[in-house]
Design a protein that fits this description.
This protein is α/β, with parallel strands linked by helices. The chain contains 7 helices and 9 strands; from the N terminus they run H-H-E-E-E-E-E-E-H-E-H-E-H-H-H-E. The strands form 2 sheets. The chain has a 7-stranded mixed sheet with strand order 5-4-2-6-7-9-8. A two-stranded parallel sheet has the order 1-3. Strand 6, helix 3 and strand 7 form a beta-alpha-beta unit. Helix 1 runs antiparallel to helix 2. The longest helix is centred in the last third of the chain and has 17 residues. The model has no long low-confidence stretch (mean pLDDT about 95).
């Protein structure tokens, strides 16, 4: 079995949400070098996505709070950042955008602090429960992400829907309750995947394009 599939199964049995599992699964195929910044980092380093990317990048961490012990510095993406222009080779931006009441600064500021030929890697939820951090304001579609990344001069934009179909999307919404019953969550996920696979036989459009639990995106600053 492919090593990545084994990692996927291991993450599922660790009672991670499906969205997080799919986000991590994308990360393990990415190699980053140079200096990187992860927005939305927490003191629980097991929840940082930098743990899952490959390569030899040195990471800095930020959030809307200072935590010197965990080396997390303050950064508010609703305002102009106190970070030097062209500082970072890579930016990680996972599950942050939906928590910004004003998100217009986010794309322009991320572009500004990214070095030439630098990378933006991120993800947002879509068919997913309301979750506070401390508040949850928005859901963003594939077309929104493509439009705004292009508008803010990013190139080589790729936005990938995460999920499988309507049954798996429904499972994702129920996960918060299913996870407390051992093995039931994994069994229902398997059944949901099988049902989506059957539906897909009769539908031309890729079902995850219609029922995404989230989106994973990459983009590059060329100049």
């Amino acid at each position: 079995m492919n090593k990545n599939y084994l990692e996927f199964l291991k993450l599922i049995f660790k009672q991670n949400s499906l969205l997080r599992v799919l986000q991590i699964y994308e990360c393990i195929n990415i190699k980053l070098y140079g200096i990187s910044l992860e927005f939305g980092a927490t003191e629980n380093k097991n929840k940082t996505f930098s743990n899952f990317v490959k390569g030899g990048s040195k990471f800095h961490y930020s959030n809307k709070f200072n935590n010197k012990k965990s080396k997390i510095f303050y950064a508010d993406l609703t305002k102009k950042l106190k970070i030097s222009t062209n500082k970072y080779n890579n930016i990680l931006f996972f599950n942050v955008l939906e928590h910004l009441p004003e998100y217009k600064f986010a794309f322009s500021e991320i572009y500004r602090i990214t070095k030439k030929k630098g990378n933006l890697i991120g993800s947002v939820p879509f068919i997913y429960q309301i979750h506070g951090a401390p508040k949850d304001y928005f859901r963003f579609s594939k077309h929104f992400l493509e439009l705004n990344l292009k508008k803010h001069r990013f190139k080589q934009i790729k936005v990938k829907p995460l999920g499988f179909g309507p049954f798996v999307a429904s499972y994702s919404l129920l996960f918060a309750y299913l996870k407390y019953i051992p093995f039931l969550s994994q069994l229902i996920l398997l059944l949901s995947y099988i049902l989506d696979s059957v539906i897909q036989l009769f539908v031309k459009t890729d079902l995850k394009e219609i029922f995404p639990v989230g989106y994973f995106f990459t983009a590059k600053k060329i100049i």
